[in-house]
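[recover] target loaded
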């Protein structure tokens, strides 16, 4: 007679990348970061196996959000207006594709995902040679606007889309150009 025993330890097919990919898929499907139990069930592993790769849910959350944010636009051209527009559109598109992501980003303690956006923002605005305080203020204003815009898109039932961004963004870029000209 053979007795089946549960295999203990980490499954050989499990790694941090696979965990993050599964969590991303569940986030897209469910609109929120999955629990460790739901994630372990989707991966067919014991929940404790996930803790080998991520010490807690906050670390997993940061890794998932970082993996998603890494997909936003990477400025590479000399036209800062075009680069900022592309960065904003890619960020809003990401938030639209993952409805629970904005709430998750705003509730996180870690700053990894924000640092990705900040680096790309500053790269796009390099041609303006703005002083750091102006760069910070302009970024904070834009990010707050984008977050509000993303929330409005979620609640507008299709009445607001990305095409409505161009007017306010053009206004913001004109103001930023005036600020750059003053320095």
């Amino acid at each position: 007679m053979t007795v089946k025993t549960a295999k203990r330890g980490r499954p050989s097919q499990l790694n941090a990348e696979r965990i993050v990919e599964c969590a991303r898929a569940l986030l897209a499907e469910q609109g929120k970061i999955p629990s460790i139990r739901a994630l372990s069930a989707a991966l067919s592993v014991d929940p404790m196996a996930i803790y080998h790769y991520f010490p807690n849910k906050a670390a997993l959350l940061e890794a998932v959000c970082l993996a998603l944010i890494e997909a936003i636009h990477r400025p590479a051209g000399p036209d800062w207006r075009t680069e900022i527009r592309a960065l904003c559109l890619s960020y809003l598109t990401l938030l639209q594709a993952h409805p629970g992501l904005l709430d998750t980003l705003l509730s996180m303690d870690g700053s990894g995902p924000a640092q990705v956006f900040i680096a790309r923002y500053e790269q796009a605005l390099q041609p303006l040679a703005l002083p750091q305080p102006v760069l910070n203020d302009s970024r904070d204003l834009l990010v707050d606007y984008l977050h509000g815009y993303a929330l409005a898109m979620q609640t507008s039932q299709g009445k607001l889309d990305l095409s409505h961004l161009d007017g306010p963004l053009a206004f913001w870029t004109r103001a930023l150009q005036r600020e750059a000209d003053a320095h």
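[recover] notes: The chain has a mean pLDDT of 89.
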